Amino acid sequence: MNRGTIKVWDPLIRVFHWSLVTSYAIVWLTAEDLAKVHEWAGYVVAGLLVFRILWGLVGPKYARFGQFIRSPATVAEYLRAMIQGKEQRYVGHNPAGGLMIIGLMLALAGAVLTGWMSTLDAYRGVEWVEGAHGLLANLTLLMVIAHVGGVILSSFRHKENLARAMVVGHKRAPEPADIV
Predict the structure, then answer these.
(1) 178 domain-assigned
(2) Residue 180 in domain
(3) Which residues pair with 172 in a beta bridge?
C-alpha cells in the first residue's frame, strides 16, 4: 500500500472475520428449516472461535487480546468521549470494539455450547438448554447490529472506511493524536 496506510489486519484475521459473518448468517437463516445445515454451520462457528482464541494469544500485534482488551474504566471513558463526539482514533480496535469482540465471542460460544448440548440425548428437548440457545442467538444478533452501528459511527467520525479495512487489511497511518 502507499505510505499513507499501514497494515493492521492480517490475512488470517480477515478470513476469520468474514468466515464468521458468513457462518453466523447461515446459522441464523437455517435455524428453523435446515437442521443439518444449521448444526454444521454451528460447528464451523465453534472452530472459528477456537482459532480466534489461539490467534488472540499468538497472532500479530493487532490480533492479540492484549492489544485491545481494556480496563472497564478505559472502556467507560471511551464511551463517554464517544457520546460527546470526542473519542480518540485507535489504529487497532478501540476500547468499545474490544469489549464487543469479547462479548460476541462469549455469546457465540454459549450459543455453540447450548446448540451442541441439544444434540445430546441427555439434553435433547430440555427447556432451559433450548431457551438459553435461543436467547444467546438473539443476543448475538443484537450485538452484531450494535457492532455494525459502531463500525459505521467510527468510520464516519474518523473518516475511514473500517469495513474496507477489514477486507484489504490496511488503515490510514496513525497521526500524532491516535492511539497505536
Answers:
(1) no
(2) no
(3) 5
